[in-house]
Amino acid sequence: MEATTIRYTDFIKTKAKELGFLACGISKATFLEEEAPRLEKWLNDGRHGKMHYMENHFDKRLDPRLLVDDAKSVISLLLNYYPSEMQTENAPKLSKYAYGTDYHFVIKDKLKTLLEAIQEEIGEVNGRAFVDSAPVLDKAWAAKSGLGWIGKHSNLLAKQTGSFFFIAELIIDLPLVYDAPTTDHCGSCTACIDACPTEAIVGPYVVDGSKCISYLTIELKDNIPTEFKGKTDDWMFGCDVCQDVCPWNRFSKPHNEPLFNPHPDLLEMTYKDWEELTQETFSKVFKKSAVKRTKYVGLKRNIEFLK
């Protein structure tokens, strides 16, 4: 191993920490052999519901070299979003990741800064930043680079930190020191499978996306099927049940990213406030939020469905 490769790797990991990332792992940019048949089966079984975009760019999802010319390394990064305060008990629930500013903006800025720092320190390095907005299997890459293992709920889990974090990547054309995957620590636990309100976790490590409350309240643009009436557990945007019940999340610590702090009004809003939500309040409370993805009409639809 060349001394410069080790030095570059150390620099990248140190810089990632400085930028507030929870963890940074690196893996070799190659074809994801194990994931290919799994992804194909998941799509063939229709587990993606109406997320038709999942069928696109199949090859690119499995090979980062098709996304970045001469890609050598996939740098996976985790950013904590676990909040220090939660919504009031008597209210429709919002997934914790959506409390503050839309993570796409926050992470993209950090990744841009990291890539610029790499280029400044090392020279001409080409690469692209990804925050779940392109065909990249982020959980697979994070697991490959030793940042955790894929839990039975199909989320990435880490022993020290749980799962309340975002995953992002920098794919670059620079060879680095690669990390080794960790082992699975779910054991015989089935807490997430047992607790899922819609039985979307159809088996260990297999989620039927078309039954997932996050899919129903965010991705699905049609009316929510009546078969889920009374089963969405008061979630109006996303769902955290499988993470909330996971024993590893007892190690979750509040984030220290000011941009992820919620709008002051958000946590105090009651059931009545949400039912009477106006376009004006929606625009104010969710000005730069990921909740804008459902738009006002989508959130109103979700709240109505809970009645």
UniProtKB/TrEMBL annotation:
Keywords: 4Fe-4S, Cobalamin, Cobalt, Cytoplasm, Iron, Iron-sulfur, Metal-binding, Oxidoreductase, Queuosine biosynthesis, tRNA processing. SUPFAM superfamilies: alpha-helical ferredoxin (SSF46548). Binds 2 [4Fe-4S] clusters per monomer. Its EC number is 1.17.99.6. InterPro entries: 4Fe4S_Fe-S-bd (IPR017896), 4Fe4S_Fe_S_CS (IPR017900), QueG (IPR004453), QueG_DUF1730 (IPR013542). Its cofactor is cob(II)alamin; [4Fe-4S] cluster. The keyword Hydrolase does not apply. The active site is at residue 132. [4Fe-4S] cluster 1 binds at residues 186, 189, 192, 246. It is found in: Cytoplasm. Pathway: tRNA modification; tRNA-queuosine biosynthesis. Catalyzes the conversion of epoxyqueuosine (oQ) to queuosine (Q), which is a hypermodified base found in the wobble positions of tRNA(Asp), tRNA(Asn), tRNA(His) and tRNA(Tyr). This is Epoxyqueuosine reductase. It comes from Neptunitalea lumnitzerae. The lineage of its organism: Bacteria, Pseudomonadati, Bacteroidota, Flavobacteriia, Flavobacteriales. The gene is queG.
